[in-house]
Write a structure and sequence with these properties.
The chain is mostly helical and 209 residues long. The chain contains ten helices and no strands. It has two domains: 96 residues, no CATH class; 103 residues. It is 76% helix and 0% strand.
Length: 209
């Protein structure tokens, strides 16, 4: 459920882009007074701009809903909101989709830098801080896993921008939705299998006692 909530703006971005031609003209035109460009119903070239505008609004809603539920902010939501407002705003202002295509890359690289910083200077890595309350493994395993996330975020950022520059916009949108999400799920599953090798079975502790 949390994964779906985290991908809520991305999902809306994808749906608006894919079904732009089926969206009632009244809904599309209602955005025009708030945008620095004029959207035309049925014009597929405008799909990326409406999708971007909807994703910005969805990101604000995501942060607001999370605060209402938990009375605190999630760092990843705030960072994503700042980036989509900056890069999405630039896409709308300059009528250039390239800005929004860079947003996932910058987000992934920022995460890679944050995890790398914790690896180099922190007493505990970010992975250990996030997961040690539920799982106990040796410190060296946390550091290996943290390095894995650094590599994953760095490569994901590179892959996103490579797809953006070398393939059509339609393919990039599909990759943003299914490719990035699929890679994340695969990596998380791999992480779980890796951690399982080093987790101690509670029944063993009971037998020793």
């Amino acid at each position: 459920m949390k994964l779906l909530f985290d991908f809520f703006p991305v999902l809306l971005f994808f749906l608006v882009y894919k079904f732009y031609g089926s969206i009632p003209p009244e809904f599309i035109h209602s955005f025009n007074p708030f945008l620095p460009l004029t959207l035309k119903a049925g014009n597929h070239a405008d799909a990326i701009f409406l999708a971007t505008a909807v994703a910005i609004v969805a990101s604000f809603l995501q942060v607001a809903i999370y605060w209402l539920w938990h009375r605190r902010f999630e760092t990843i939501h705030l960072v994503s909101l700042g980036l989509i407002t900056l890069f999405g705003g630039a896409t709308l202002a300059f009528h250039d989709p390239l800005f929004i295509k860079w947003k996932p890359t910058i987000l992934n690289w920022l995460f890679a830098i944050a995890f790398l910083f914790s690896q180099a200077f922190g007493r505990r890595t970010l992975v250990e801080r996030m997961m040690s309350h539920a799982i106990t493994v040796p410190s060296i395993i946390w550091r290996r896993l943290n390095m894995g996330w650094i590599v994953f975020f760095a490569l994901s950022g590179c892959l996103n921008i490579w797809v953006a520059y070398n393939y059509s916009q339609d393919i990039w949108v599909d990759f943003k939705m299914f490719g990035m999400l699929g890679l994340s799920i695969i990596f998380i599953i791999g992480q779980a299998f890796y951690l399982a090798r080093f987790m101690q079975d509670p029944s063993e502790d009971n037998q020793e006692m």
